[in-house]
Amino acid sequence: MADEILQAKRLISEKAERFTESVIREMTRQAMLHGAVNLAQGFPDFPAPEAIKQAAAEAIAADINQYAITWGARSLRQAIARQMKVWQGLDIDPETDITVCCGSTEAMIATLLAVCNPGEEIVIFEPFYENYGPDAILSGARPRFVKLYAPAEGDGEWHFDEAELRAAFNPRTKAIILNTPNNPTGKVFTRRELEFIRDLCVEYNALAITDEIYEHILYDGTEHISIAALDGMRDHTVTINGMSKTYSVTGWRVGWAVAAPALTGAIRKVHDFLTVGAPAPLQEAGAAALSLPPSYYQELAAGYRARRDRLLTALRQAGFVAYLPRGAYYIMTDISAFGFPDDLRFTEHLVKEIGVAPVPGSSFYNDPRDGAQQVRFAFCKRDATLDEAGRRLKRLRPSA
Ligand code: PLP
Question: Half-sphere exposure of 254 toward its Cβ, with a 13 Å CA cutoff?
């Protein structure tokens, strides 16, 4: 009898069975397998800034090699607080308001685990960065998806329907996850949109958990606004950010969550038992990175602007409807012109026959059918990489 019970016991948790491996990370493996140009996963193929590599090397040489304070090295927390004042006018106390984590990925899951109870709901705009789906499942919360609609023309703005967003809020709503500048759409939420979201958060006593890791990657004069800076949101916001994208060090795994002290206390506890702490010497390098001059950020955005235009031209010449991103480093496209039944078969064709790896659109939607005629390309790559992709994409043929 005992044996039967043991046999019947499921060894995999129901939670883990409810999501798959990351499609984005799988596409990197596929690109390597087939020798395709990897425009799938969002990591730069060019070097990180010399000054911060030097700072990391110096920290290791100075023997900053043991656990940092679990919620983050003081030097990094002070630098984060200082820069949030400079960039968004926010008054952050580095002693009580900041938790440094292993990337913004950990900051997001630690936050959700710290705030969600089973049965509570999280509002998520879709298409969404694919981590948010499994994050919601792991935290026990129920996601409610609200559409971001593609512009009718490639150069218009992605937008949401205010009535649909309002309808997604109810007394069970614990939080909305906001990602601006947005992956995968490139949307930069406007002040008006953020105020609308703010009003719903205040009305329903819900949190805005905002992923701002592309805050410095902006084009065409768009402005990044932290929702925490809007009146009434200081205690209703968890602001998540990190080093990965701003300093081109996605492998370092340093990110942070900024929130009012009571929320931070809960996030710090979860973080401590998840990972103890982020890499100590790389946190020191983080403090150096956050001390780079303003010109660093101007050059970062200008460099990405040129890469955006380069890939946009290549994609449009190849027959894609390519939506113009206003921020972040991705281009979402419509693939209807190529006559494929869905994004997975198109992606397979692109990887194996054309030699370019995108991310299939379905991985950004709850219902895969919603992304069946979309794929996303990343342009955080050297000009030579983008040009090679452009050359290969010329072999694509729109269907008659
Ligand atoms: N959030 C968004 C919106 C992303 O696009 C990514 C990476 O692509 C991450 C978070 C991961 O960030 P980190 O490297 O800080 O964990």
Answer: 24
Q: Domain range for residue 333?
A: 2-48+295-393
- Cis, peptide link before residue 279, omega less than 30° from 0: no
Residue 129 CA, closest ligand 1 atom number: 3
**Domain identity same for 262 and 327:** no
Ligand 1 touching residue 246 (CB < 6 A): no
**CA separation for the pair 109, 192 (Å, rounded):** 28
Type of residue at 42: G
Tokens of 90: 């926010």
> pLDDT tens, 356-395?
999 999 999 999 999 999 999 999 999 999 999 999 999 9
Residue nearest to atom 11 of ligand 1 (CA): 105
In the reported structure, the alpha carbon of residue 105 is separated from the centroid of ligand 1 by a whole-number distance in angstroms of 6
Q: Is the CB of 242 under 6 A from ligand 1?
A: yes
Number of CB atoms found within 10 A of residue 152's CB: 6
CATH code of the domain covering residue 240: 3.40.640.10
Please provide the size of the chain in residues: 400
Q: How far does the centroid of ligand 1 lie from the alpha carbon of residue 212, in Å?
A: 9
**Residue nearest to ligand 1 atom 12, measured at CA:** 104
My answer on whether 251 and 155 are in the same domain is yes
